[in-house]
Amino acid sequence: MLIFFGPPGAGKGTQARAVSTELGIPHISTGDILRESARKETGLGLAAKARMDKGDLVSDDVMCRIVGERLSEPDCRNGAILDGFPRTLGQAHFLDQLLEQRESERALLLNLQLEQTQVIKRLAGRRVCSKCGEIYNVYLNPPRQDEICDKDGSQLFQRPDDNEEAIRQRLLAYERETVPLIDYYRSKNALHDINGNGEPEAITERLLNFLKRT
């Protein structure tokens, strides 16, 4: 079971999708799970939606049950990549118990490391197409025409929380949230730091080379 960690802007989702394709195992994003569960109007999905609609965090109990259900599906028989779970020690303990029951699996946490200046550059420079959702970066991957999507000519916009002050606050929250988890997995020799700098393709190659040696 692979778990992707890293600060906002580290490219966890991008890398998880790329590694998922290469290894042939599902990429499981907790955000996607929650949206799908709510769409299907399952009991757990509705419970999660009620909390999210009020701006509350989804409880460990609900999150663990939703993730547990997803991991029980046939496509996860040979492993999966988790993106956004666990986020608390309670969730980590739940995952440990789940993997113990599966016997043949263990958690391997890949921690994408990125300097704060690079995080700010990636997020503050991010622009999103208002129509198709294509993502650009004014520093790293600019559109051909300023603030206009290459694909459909629609206006690009900056997400409200992609300003520098908001980014710094998100980084502080990330540190508070994940330091206990990082320490926990490091104590179990299950955490491996991966250099998150560079082009996405180079980072993917770095991850795959590490996994081949593991």
SSE blueprint and pairings:
Elements: E1 2-5, H1 12-23, E2 27-29, H2 30-40, H3 43-53, H4 60-71, E3 81-83, H5 89-102, E4 108-113, H6 116-124, E5 126-129, E6 135-137, E7 156-157, H7 164-187, E8 191-195, H8 200-213
Helix pairs in contact: 1-8, 2-3, 2-4, 3-4, 4-5, 6-7
Question: Describe it for me?
Answer:
The protein is α/β, with parallel strands linked by helices. It has one domain: 3-Layer(aba) Sandwich (Rossmann fold). Helices cover 50% and strands 14% of the residues. The protein contains 8 helices and 8 strands. It has helices at 12-23, 30-40, 43-53, 60-71, 89-102, 116-124, 164-187, 200-213; strands spanning 2-5, 27-29, 81-83, 108-113, 126-129, 135-137, 156-157, 191-195. A 5-stranded parallel sheet has the order 2-3-1-4-8. It has a 3-stranded antiparallel sheet with strand order 6-5-7. Strand 5 (126-129) and strand 6 (135-137) form a beta hairpin. The longest helix has 24 residues, at 164-187. The two termini are 13 Å apart. The mean pLDDT is 88.
